Protein backbone atom coordinates (compact mmCIF):
# COMPACT_ATOMS: atom_id res chain seq x y z
CA UNK A 1 0.00 0.00 0.00
CA UNK A 2 1.38 3.40 -0.91
CA UNK A 3 2.44 5.79 1.79
CA UNK A 4 -0.23 8.47 0.97
CA UNK A 5 -3.05 5.88 1.17
CA UNK A 6 -1.71 4.51 4.44
CA UNK A 7 -1.55 8.04 5.85
CA UNK A 8 -5.15 8.71 4.82
CA UNK A 9 -6.36 5.44 6.36
CA UNK A 10 -4.48 6.05 9.61
CA UNK A 11 -5.69 9.64 9.77
CA UNK A 12 -9.29 8.51 9.21
CA UNK A 13 -8.95 5.86 11.89
CA UNK A 14 -7.62 8.42 14.36
CA UNK A 15 -10.36 10.90 13.50
CA UNK A 16 -13.06 8.21 13.75
CA UNK A 17 -11.61 7.05 17.07
CA UNK A 18 -11.66 10.63 18.39
CA UNK A 19 -15.29 11.09 17.32
CA UNK A 20 -16.27 7.83 19.00
CA UNK A 21 -14.33 8.73 22.15
CA UNK A 22 -16.12 12.08 22.49
CA UNK A 23 -19.57 10.56 22.10
CA UNK A 24 -21.81 10.08 25.14
CA UNK A 25 -20.36 7.64 27.68
CA UNK A 26 -21.43 4.09 27.12
CA UNK A 27 -22.68 1.84 29.86
CA UNK A 28 -19.31 0.08 29.86
CA UNK A 29 -17.54 3.44 30.36
CA UNK A 30 -19.91 4.26 33.23
CA UNK A 31 -19.32 0.84 34.76
CA UNK A 32 -15.57 1.36 34.44
CA UNK A 33 -15.83 4.76 36.15
CA UNK A 34 -17.75 3.16 39.03
CA UNK A 35 -15.15 0.40 39.39
CA UNK A 36 -12.33 2.95 39.41
CA UNK A 37 -14.20 5.03 42.03
CA UNK A 38 -14.51 1.95 44.28
CA UNK A 39 -10.78 1.23 43.89
CA UNK A 40 -9.94 4.85 44.74
CA UNK A 41 -12.26 4.72 47.77
CA UNK A 42 -10.67 1.48 48.96
CA UNK A 43 -7.20 3.03 48.69
CA UNK A 44 -8.29 6.17 50.58
CA UNK A 45 -9.75 3.97 53.33
CA UNK A 46 -6.55 1.93 53.56
CA UNK A 47 -4.68 5.20 54.09
CA UNK A 48 -7.03 6.02 57.00
CA UNK A 49 -6.27 2.61 58.55
CA UNK A 50 -2.51 3.13 58.16
CA UNK A 51 -2.56 6.71 59.48
CA UNK A 52 -4.42 5.43 62.55
CA UNK A 53 -1.34 3.46 63.62
CA UNK A 54 1.04 6.19 62.47
CA UNK A 55 -0.70 8.86 64.58
CA UNK A 56 -1.01 6.57 67.58
CA UNK A 57 2.69 5.69 67.46
CA UNK A 58 3.66 9.37 67.14
CA UNK A 59 1.35 10.19 70.07
CA UNK A 60 -0.38 12.66 67.74
CA UNK A 61 -3.75 12.30 69.42
CA UNK A 62 -5.29 15.24 67.57
CA UNK A 63 -4.33 13.66 64.22
CA UNK A 64 -5.59 10.30 65.46
CA UNK A 65 -8.94 11.78 66.55
CA UNK A 66 -9.28 13.64 63.22
CA UNK A 67 -9.64 10.26 61.49
CA UNK A 68 -13.05 9.83 63.16
CA UNK A 69 -16.37 11.24 61.95
CA UNK A 70 -17.99 13.99 64.03
CA UNK A 71 -20.09 11.30 65.77
CA UNK A 72 -17.52 8.51 65.32
CA UNK A 73 -17.04 5.92 68.07
CA UNK A 74 -13.78 4.35 69.21
CA UNK A 75 -14.14 1.20 71.31
CA UNK A 76 -10.96 -0.42 72.62
CA UNK A 77 -9.19 -1.53 75.77
CA UNK A 78 -9.05 2.15 76.78
CA UNK A 79 -12.84 2.33 76.82
CA UNK A 80 -15.38 3.81 74.46
CA UNK A 81 -15.59 7.43 73.31
CA UNK A 82 -17.77 9.30 70.82
CA UNK A 83 -16.55 12.21 68.71
CA UNK A 84 -13.01 13.40 67.99
CA UNK A 85 -12.66 15.53 71.16
CA UNK A 86 -13.71 12.67 73.47
CA UNK A 87 -11.50 10.20 71.57
CA UNK A 88 -8.49 12.51 71.94
CA UNK A 89 -9.25 12.97 75.67
CA UNK A 90 -9.46 9.21 76.35
CA UNK A 91 -6.05 8.69 74.71
CA UNK A 92 -4.47 11.51 76.68
CA UNK A 93 -5.98 10.12 79.89
CA UNK A 94 -4.68 6.59 79.26
CA UNK A 95 -1.37 7.29 77.52
CA UNK A 96 -0.48 10.78 78.76
CA UNK A 97 0.48 13.79 76.70
CA UNK A 98 3.85 13.49 74.98
CA UNK A 99 6.63 15.99 75.61
CA UNK A 100 7.25 18.53 72.81
CA UNK A 101 9.49 16.99 70.15
CA UNK A 102 8.56 13.45 71.24
CA UNK A 103 9.98 10.69 69.04
CA UNK A 104 8.69 7.20 69.77
CA UNK A 105 11.57 4.74 70.00
CA UNK A 106 9.83 2.16 72.17
CA UNK A 107 6.90 0.75 70.19
CA UNK A 108 4.96 0.76 66.93
CA UNK A 109 1.97 -0.77 65.16
CA UNK A 110 2.05 -2.82 61.98
CA UNK A 111 -1.24 -2.85 60.07
CA UNK A 112 -2.04 -5.65 57.65
CA UNK A 113 -4.64 -7.76 55.79
CA UNK A 114 -7.08 -4.95 55.10
CA UNK A 115 -10.36 -6.06 53.59
CA UNK A 116 -12.45 -3.07 52.48
CA UNK A 117 -15.98 -3.10 51.08
CA UNK A 118 -17.45 0.14 49.75
CA UNK A 119 -21.16 0.88 49.32
CA UNK A 120 -21.58 4.47 48.13
CA UNK A 121 -20.68 6.81 51.00
CA UNK A 122 -20.42 4.00 53.54
CA UNK A 123 -17.85 1.25 53.91
CA UNK A 124 -16.75 -1.57 56.17
CA UNK A 125 -13.21 -2.71 56.81
CA UNK A 126 -11.47 -5.49 58.68
CA UNK A 127 -7.78 -5.45 59.38
CA UNK A 128 -5.17 -6.90 61.70
CA UNK A 129 -2.45 -5.31 63.74
CA UNK A 130 0.74 -6.33 65.46
CA UNK A 131 1.95 -4.13 68.31
CA UNK A 132 5.71 -4.22 68.71
CA UNK A 133 7.64 -3.04 71.77
CA UNK A 134 11.31 -2.96 72.69
CA UNK A 135 12.67 -5.68 74.96
CA UNK A 136 15.00 -4.68 77.82
CA UNK A 137 17.95 -5.35 75.51
CA UNK A 138 16.44 -3.21 72.74
CA UNK A 139 15.18 -5.95 70.44
CA UNK A 140 11.71 -5.72 68.88
CA UNK A 141 9.17 -7.99 70.55
CA UNK A 142 5.59 -8.63 69.48
CA UNK A 143 3.49 -7.65 72.50
CA UNK A 144 -0.03 -7.85 71.10
CA UNK A 145 -1.80 -8.96 67.96
CA UNK A 146 -5.38 -8.14 67.20
CA UNK A 147 -7.97 -7.13 64.70
CA UNK A 148 -10.02 -4.05 63.94
CA UNK A 149 -13.59 -4.04 62.72
CA UNK A 150 -14.53 -0.70 61.17
CA UNK A 151 -17.48 1.15 59.76
CA UNK A 152 -16.58 4.23 57.74
CA UNK A 153 -18.50 7.13 56.22
CA UNK A 154 -17.62 9.76 53.67
CA UNK A 155 -17.91 13.06 55.54
CA UNK A 156 -17.49 16.25 53.48
CA UNK A 157 -15.80 14.19 50.75
CA UNK A 158 -13.30 12.56 53.14
CA UNK A 159 -13.43 8.99 54.48
CA UNK A 160 -13.72 8.90 58.28
CA UNK A 161 -14.05 6.14 60.86
CA UNK A 162 -17.64 5.98 62.07
CA UNK A 163 -17.06 3.07 64.42
CA UNK A 164 -13.82 1.28 65.20
CA UNK A 165 -13.74 -1.72 67.50
CA UNK A 166 -10.46 -3.29 68.54
CA UNK A 167 -10.31 -6.97 69.46
CA UNK A 168 -7.24 -8.47 71.10
CA UNK A 169 -6.25 -11.84 69.61
CA UNK A 170 -2.77 -12.82 70.90
CA UNK A 171 -2.50 -12.69 73.83
CA UNK A 172 -6.27 -12.77 74.01
CA UNK A 173 -7.20 -9.76 76.05
CA UNK A 174 -10.26 -7.96 74.85
CA UNK A 175 -11.08 -4.76 76.70
CA UNK A 176 -14.47 -4.79 75.00
CA UNK A 177 -15.32 -8.09 76.66
CA UNK A 178 -13.61 -8.45 80.04
CA UNK A 179 -15.68 -11.57 80.84
CA UNK A 180 -13.57 -13.93 78.79
CA UNK A 181 -14.93 -17.40 78.07
CA UNK A 182 -12.98 -20.39 79.42
CA UNK A 183 -10.25 -21.75 77.17
CA UNK A 184 -11.36 -24.56 74.87
CA UNK A 185 -10.53 -28.07 76.11
CA UNK A 186 -8.12 -28.54 73.21
CA UNK A 187 -6.01 -25.68 74.58
CA UNK A 188 -5.99 -26.79 78.22
CA UNK A 189 -2.39 -27.27 79.28
CA UNK A 190 -1.04 -25.16 76.40
CA UNK A 191 1.05 -22.32 77.79
CA UNK A 192 -0.54 -18.99 76.96
CA UNK A 193 1.89 -16.10 76.36
CA UNK A 194 1.70 -13.31 78.91
CA UNK A 195 1.40 -9.62 78.01
CA UNK A 196 4.50 -7.59 78.82
In angstroms, what is the radius of gyration? 25 Å
- Count, helices: 4
**Biggest sheet statistics:** 6 strands, mixed
Query: Mind telling me which CATH architecture this is?
Result: Roll
Which bin fits the share of residues in helices? 25-40%
Write down the secondary-structure element order.
HHHEEHEEEE
CATH topology: Nuclear Transport Factor 2, Chain: A
Report low-confidence residues grouped into runs of 5 or more.
Answer: 13-22, 186-196
As a percent range, the share of strand residues is 25-35%
Count the E strands: 6
Q: Give the domain tally.
A: 1
Per the principal axes of the C-alpha atoms, what is the gross shape?
globular
Please explain how this structure is put together:
- This protein is an alpha+beta fold.
- It has a single domain (27-97, 105-176), classed as Nuclear Transport Factor 2, Chain: A (Roll).
- Helices cover 36% and strands 35% of the residues.
- It has a six-stranded mixed β-sheet with strand order 2-1-6-5-4-3.
- A hairpin with a 5-residue loop joins strand 4 (122-134) and strand 5 (140-155).
- The chain is globular.
Amino acid sequence: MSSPRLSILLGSALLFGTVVATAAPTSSATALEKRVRVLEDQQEIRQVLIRYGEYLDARDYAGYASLFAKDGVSSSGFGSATGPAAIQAILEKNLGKPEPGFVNKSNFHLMTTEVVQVDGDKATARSRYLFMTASPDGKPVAALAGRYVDQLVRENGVWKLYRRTSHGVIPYRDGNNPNLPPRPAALQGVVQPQAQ
